[in-house]
Design a protein that fits this description.
This protein has about 450 residues and is an alpha+beta fold. The chain has helices spanning about 10-25, 30-40, 50-60, 65-75, 80-95, 160-165, 165-175, 185-195, 210, 215-225, 270-280, 350-355, 360-370, 385-405, and strands spanning about 105-115, 125, 130-145, 150-155, 205, 230, 235-240, 270, 285-290, 295-310, 320-325, 335-340. Strands 1, 2, 3, 4, 5, 6, 7, 8, 9, 10, 11 and 12 form a twelve-stranded mixed sheet that branches.
């Protein structure tokens, strides 16, 4: 049952007040009305959320001027994405954490298939949406999550090396001079550092193996004092139990004393797959972690303390112990997922599984941002427009997330009621002469 707070009139007033705060963050009076209109357009039941269909629905009798206004706002106007996202965060995070504290920070990237080669950052690269190498743009995001909800905090386009060093393409698409090539892992660490600087309550950092396999990314999180539970590949090497590399060679009395750890033929780490296959069957236990669409989700898991082995022969002390979590579903011939978790040694298996599986909530965000709010519908080619459009999509989504905390956590986007003009029965295509000027 919906609370009285979900009545259309109150909801519209809250939305208007929210848009006023976003307009202030955009810091120029001329941007206020276009920004509000753009956010309203993103929440309309349109098949495509690009500028033209939004303008046609928002102002059916003044499409051309509205189109120009919205296009200028998103493609050209130099407002600060970070300032607007901070306003979104203040509103949405306050609502999200009213009942539950922050549980996790989720790092991920998402792809947008593109034709041609002129849109900023487009290249042939892995596209998660398609599950293969394809011509696309890829953006890296950091989201904050409670057990019930999540919201992107930061968003940045990944600029491939082929783009980072191409002055002409950079000039045409307006890539800022300070933006050079950075790996996705480095971009994510920058976003995490900024979130800490902004005073956002920290959670366990979650990411898939594209980030967890990067030892520099894990080391960066450790330096920042953050806990993590990161996916890793089965080829990652570790030392089982209390094992580890050999101590340095004994000092022979001349020269500098040896400091680096060693390995020999008898002292070698194992891959995660080797270690998993050595475990007895009873090491794996059935664990359920949340309700699915038809029944509770469950699988078999084992957890044990291990010591990462990545290049420890270049160190003077071994890596600290941490958790290895292994998922081996009953009907699979071998384990399907592995995670390294820098969590307390007292952490229980069910808690390890619950926090690791919290990443699913990000998939829901991307699904709604793309399908309901048009995150991938921007048709421009420039750096500024790509980020402005994404910021306003996140802004619209942030209001919806806050509204859900007022009533049903499972409510979907359609619960927002916006008064908008009805579209005319026929809309002339852009560029066609206006009916009143047909003569």
């Amino acid at each position: 049952m919906l609370s009285k707070d979900s009545s259309p009139g109150l909801q519209q007033r809250r939305f208007a007040a929210y848009l006023d705060r976003l307009a202030l963050a955009a810091s120029h009076a001329d941007r206020a009305e276009p920004l509000k209109a753009y956010c309203r357009g993103l929440l309309l039941p349109l098949e495509r959320k690009s500028v033209e269909p939004m303008a046609a629905r928002l102002a059916p009798h003044n499409v051309r001027q509205t189109h120009q206004s919205l296009h200028h706002l998103v493609a050209t106007s130099p407002w600060d994405d970070d300032a607007v996202l901070a306003a979104v965060r203040r509103h949405a995070l306050t609502a999200m954490t009213a009942k539950s504290p922050v549980a996790a920070w989720i790092v991920d990237d998402t792809g947008f298939p593109k034709k041609g080669k002129h849109s900023v950052g487009v290249a042939r690269q892995y596209c998660g949406q398609l599950g293969k190498q394809e011509n696309c743009q890829v953006a890296v995001s950091l989201s904050v999550a409670t057990p019930q909800a999540s919201l992107p905090l930061a968003w940045r386009l990944y600029l491939p090396e082929s783009w980072a060093g191409d002055r002409e393409r950079r000039r045409k698409t307006g890539v800022p001079a300070e933006i050079g090539f950075a790996t996705k892992q480095k971009i994510a660490l920058e976003q995490i550092r900024q979130a800490l600087a902004d005073g956002i309550a920290a959670g366990v950092v979650l990411a898939d193996a594209a980030y967890g396999n990067d030892s520099a990314f894990r080391a960066g999180l450790e330096e920042l004092g953050l806990e993590y539970a990161l996916g890793v590949q089965r080829s990652t090497t570790v030392w089982r139990g209390g094992a580890g590399p050999l101590p340095p060679e004994p000092y022979k009395g001349t020269g500098r004393p040896p400091k680096l750890l060693r390995r020999n033929a008898e002292s070698q780490p194992l891959t995660l797959k080797q270690l998993a296959l050595e475990l007895p069957r009873e090491a794996f236990r059935n664990v359920s972690w949340r309700a699915g669409t038809k029944q509770r989700l469950r699988s078999r898991f084992a957890a044990l303390r291990v010591r990462p082995a990545h290049r420890d022969y270049e160190r003077d002390e071994p890596h600290p112990q941490q958790w290895l979590l292994i998922e081996w579903p009953p009907n699979e011939a071998e384990p399907t997922h592995y995670w390294l978790a820098d969590l307390a040694a007292s952490t229980q298996l069910k808690d390890l599984v619950a926090i690791t599986k919290q990443r699913w909530i990000l998939e829901r965000d991307y699904q709604e941002l793309k399908q309901e709010l048009g995150l991938g519908h921007y048709e421009g080619r420039g750096w500024r427009g790509f980020h402005h459009h994404a910021t306003l999509c996140i802004a619209a989504y942030g209001f919806l997330i806050a509204e859900r905390t007022r009533f049903s956590p499972s409510a979907r986007v359609g619960t927002l009621h916006l008064p908008v003009p009805k579209p005319p029965s026929e809309l002339p295509p852009r560029g066609a002469p206006h009916p009143s000027r047909a003569a």
